[in-house]
From TrEMBL:
Cross-referenced Pfam families: Ribosomal_L16
GO terms under cellular component: mitochondrial large ribosomal subunit
Protein name: 806_t:CDS:1
Keyword Cell membrane in annotation: no
Signal sequence, start to end: none
Record's keyword terms, sorted: Ribonucleoprotein, Ribosomal protein
Entry keyword annotation includes Ribosomal protein: yes
Any one Gene Ontology BP term: mitochondrial translation
Similarity remark: Belongs to the universal ribosomal protein uL16 family.
One GO MF term: rRNA binding
Superkingdom to which the source organism belongs: Eukaryota
């Protein structure tokens, strides 16, 4: 905590108290930051919280966003195409049911937030159910305004996004003995929020496919 003295005359505190502030037990609370900013009338001091919690209120918004980034901007890049046979993130790891993308796509934080909220709204009636998001938007995306000269690097920050390769699991649902019908409907609603074709996968199906692969006999022809 740190303290900052203010002048009643300069800030016309009397008029501001009667119009915009809430008075309670000799303390005045700002309506926007009722738990963050207080003024002690007797000592004539403005009490503010730590700088990290006062100036970073935008971090705690609804959309997904990284807490800290090393650079403000990033290259657009391309969605990775796995040509080496990597299957990382293609199978269910936490839950019992999942939503998998069929094509490579770049998803914004708003789209992921909408899908995540739709899933939570559908399965919240089932006690013990959980949802896992296997991707996270950590790439800053910029956009240029109208009547701007050509060239890159001029745009201001617009939103965060993530690059999702083909066959990547986006969301997983499990816990609470959730039924397949409920999970499938929740993931169907979430897929309507995304600009990419998706498919519903089940953990048992993944284990069966892996078992079939292990049972394949390799015949060498001389």
């Amino acid at each position: 905590m740190f303290f900052l003295k203010i002048n009643r005359t300069a800030f016309s505190l009397t008029n501001y108290l009667t119009q915009n502030l809430l008075i309670k037990r000799n303390y005045i609370l700002f309506p926007t930051f009722q738990n963050a900013v207080t003024i002690n009338v007797t000592t004539n001091k403005l009490i503010l919280p730590s700088i990290s919690s006062f100036f970073l209120q935008r971090r705690h918004r609804a959309e997904f966003a990284p807490r800290h980034t090393k650079y403000r901007k990033a290259h657009k890049g391309r969605v990775p195409v796995r040509i080496g046979g990597s299957t990382k993130g293609n199978t269910i790891a936490f839950g019992s049911f999942g939503l998998r993308v069929k094509d490579g796509v770049r998803l914004s934080s708003a789209q992921l937030t909408a899908a995540h909220t739709a899933i939570k709204r559908k399965i919240k009636i089932i006690k013990g159910s959980q949802v896992w998001m296997r991707v996270f938007p950590d790439i800053p995306v910029t956009s240029k305004g109208n009547e701007t000269r050509m060239g890159k690097g001029k745009g201001n920050f617009d939103y965060h996004a993530c690059r999702v390769p083909m066959n990547k699991i986006l969301f997983e649902i499990g816990g609470g003995n959730i039924r397949k019908e409920v999970a499938k409907e929740a993931l169907r609603i979430a897929s309507d929020k995304l600009p990419v074709k998706t498919e519903f996968v089940e953990k048992e199906d993944e284990s069966k496919k892996q078992k079939k692969i292990d049972e394949v006999e390799i015949i060498y022809i001389e």
